[in-house]
Amino acid sequence: MRVELASGTAAELALPPGGEGLRGVVIAPDAMGLRPLFDDMAARLAGDHGWAVCAVEPFPGQESLKLEQRQAARIDARRLTADLVLAAEELRERWVRTGRVAVIGFCMGGMNVYRAAGTGRFDRAVSFYGMIRPPEPWSVPGDDPLEALARPECCPVLAICGGADHFTPAADIEALRDAGAHVTVRLYPQAQHGFVHDPARPAHRPDDAADAWRWAVEFLA
Q: How far is residue 87's CA from residue 24's CA, in Å, rounded to a whole number?
């Protein structure tokens, strides 16, 4: 169901049967934001795993922007991170009996996951092919992924990457591996960008996607 965070940002909330979740999961969608793909993902994660799930719109008030406009737009990374943290706090206060809340994200959302992991407000983080060194419109000096991952309060991170993804070249993946023992990289050598979360994409690889989800679920469990 659609809800609104205290900041006014739209979000999709999915709860397991009975309401309370075994853990909370905040989803950072890709650049196209909330849509049926992420509504269905939130419902599936809630139903299959007993989690309380909240997916957060990355472009509040600008949902009508086309993909090209979103890719060229300068994002407010700190507001994005603040909304992910706010969603976590709302899950923790109302819907999660254990207090444990993780963050997962895809593409641009995977990049935002690295930043959110460095806040110390999540117990786990999973980034699916998030940009490690963001393109200029999405870069924020002092708050980019490798800087966030270097903070002592950063939580354990699982980074799922494709070896044929031009957004995460080999040198960036090596820098990610060097970020510390709290970062685990799972590399799929033949995979291109976006190979997991959207079966409609030409880059989708069903077997790799199933394996990546298995790793993510076990990491969060």
A: 10
CA distances from 202 to 25, 27, 106 (A): 27, 23, 16
- In degrees rounded to 5, what are phi and psi of residue 97? -75, -25
Please list the pLDDT of the chain residue by residue as tens digits (221 residues).
999 999 999 999 999 998 889 999 999 999 888 999 999 999 999 999 999 999 999 988 766 666 666 665 667 778 899 999 999 999 999 999 889 999 999 999 999 999 999 999 999 999 999 999 988 877 788 889 999 999 999 999 999 999 999 999 999 999 999 999 999 999 999 999 999 999 999 999 999 999 999 999 999 99
CB within 8 Å of 44: residues ≥ 6 apart? none
- Domain layout of the chain by residue ranges: 2-220
User: Which tokens sit at 166?
Assistant: 């031009």
Residue 206 phi, psi dihedral angles, 5° rounding: -55, -45
Overall CATH class of domain 2-220: alpha beta
**Global confidence as pTM:** 0.94
Residue 211: strand pairing partners:
none
- What distance in Å separates the CA atoms of residue 108 and residue 10, rounded to the nearest whole number? 17
Residues with Cβ within 8 Å of 68's Cβ and at least 6 positions away in sequence, in order, are none
